[in-house]
Amino acid sequence: MINKERILDLFFELVRIDSPSLQEKKVAVCLREKMEKRGYVVHEDKAGELSNGDTGNLIVHIPATGEGAPIAFSAHMDCVQPCIGVEPVLDGDVVRSAGQTILGGDDKAGIAMAIEALNHLEEESIPHPDIYLVFSICEESGMFGAKNIDTDLLPAKDIIVLDSGGAVGTIVVAAPAKAGITMTFTGKSAHAGIAPEEGISAIQIAGEAISKMSLLRIDESSTANLGRIEGGTATNIVADSVTLTAEARSLFEESLQTQLDHMEACCAAAVKKVGGEYEFDYEISYPVLRVDDNSPFLCKVENCCKNIGLTPKKVPTGGGSDANILFGKGYNAVTLGIGMSKVHTTEEFITVESLTSCTKLVAEIMKS
Fold first, then answer.
1. 139 is catalytic
2. Cα gap 130→208, rounded to integer Å
3. Any residues with CB less than 8 A from the CB of 281 and at least 6 apart, and which?
C-alpha cells in the first residue's frame, strides 16, 4: 500500500531544499544518504563537471529480486526560479507554495514517487527486475544532465521519465525537436539627421525579414518564436547591428528543417532588398521524441495503467524534457503525466491524489 504520509513528508523535505539549475548538490547529498542507508550503490557521473555544476547526475542501482528486463526511472533535481526558500502548504488535498516561489513539484514530485514506489515494493516483498533511479541535473536550463549522462552507468534500455503535466495515466509519446536560432543583421552606421542616406539600418533589415516570416503556430506539429531583439545605440545613429534570438520546434525533423530554411530565406531576401549582410546560425537543442505505437515498452506501460484502473491516454507535447535526450541516445524513453499543474509559476500545485495514484502506477511498472 502506498503510504500517503510518508510520500508527503519526503516531498515536503525535497521541495524545501534550494536547487536551482547547476546548484543541486544539497538535494543530491540528501538523496545519496537515503539510498546508501538502504544499501544501494549510488554513482555520481561527471555531468556536473562537464556543465559547470556543483554535482553530477545520481544513478542508483536496486538489485533484482525477480525476473524481467532492467528498467529505469528518471526525475530531475533542479527547479526553475524563483525556487529559493520554498515553503510547501497542504490545503485540503492540494499542495502549493506558501510564498512567492514555485512549488518545485517539477520535478521533486517525480523523485518522491519513484522512492515511495520502491518503498511499497520492498515492504510488500513484491519481486522486481533490476531497477535504476536517475536523479538528473540541469533539466530546466538545457538538459545538460541528460546530455552528459554516463550511459555506462545506465544499462537499462527502458526508461520512464516522471516529468510531465497531465492527469495520471497520461503517456507522452511525442515531443518536438527544438532549434535555438541566432540571426545577426549588419548594416552601416551614419548620422541619422545629417546623412541618413549614407547608412544602412540593421533594424530596417531585421524588420523586413520579420515581416515575411511565418511565426508562432506554423501547423499542428510545428512552432516558431522570436524571443529577443537587441541592437542599435542612439536615435541619431543609423543602427549598424541587430541580433534576433529565436527558436523553432517540430515533431518532425523535416518540418523543422523546412521552417529553418524559410526563416533564413527571409533574412536573405531582406538583405537583397535593403542592403547589408546577415548571419543565420542555429543549433539543435534536443532531438525529436517519437514512440512507436507498437513499442513493447509502451504496451507494457499502457497495460500497467489498466491493471490499476487507469485509462491510458497517449498524447504529444510541445515541450522537451530529458526524455528527448535519452531517446536520442538510444533509450526507450516514455514520459508520464504525474499530475503537476501550473508548473514554472508561483501558482504551481499538485494534489495528494496525484502523488499517491502516480506512485501506485510507478510501482506497478516496477514489478517483474
1. yes
2. 58
3. 181, 182, 183, 184
Going by pLDDT thresholds of 50, 70 and 90, the confidence category of residue 346 is: very high
Q: Which of 21, 10, 64 is nearest to 40 (CA)?
A: 64
* Distance between CA atoms of residues 200 and 281, nearest Å: 22
Catalytic residue among 24, 78, 302, 364: 78
Annotated active-site residue 78? The verdict is yes
CATH for the 177-286 domain, from 3.40.50.880, 3.10.50.40, 3.30.70.360, 3.30.260.10: 3.30.70.360
Catalytic residue among 139, 163, 208, 364: 139
DSSP secondary structure letters along 278-298: EEEEEEEEE--EE--TT-HHH
In the chain, where the domains are located: 4-175+288-366, 177-286
Whole-angstrom distance, CA of residue 262 vs CA of residue 177: 17
pLDDT (tens digit, 9 = 90+) per residue, 234-283?
Answer: 999 999 999 999 999 999 999 999 999 999 999 999 999 999 999 999 99
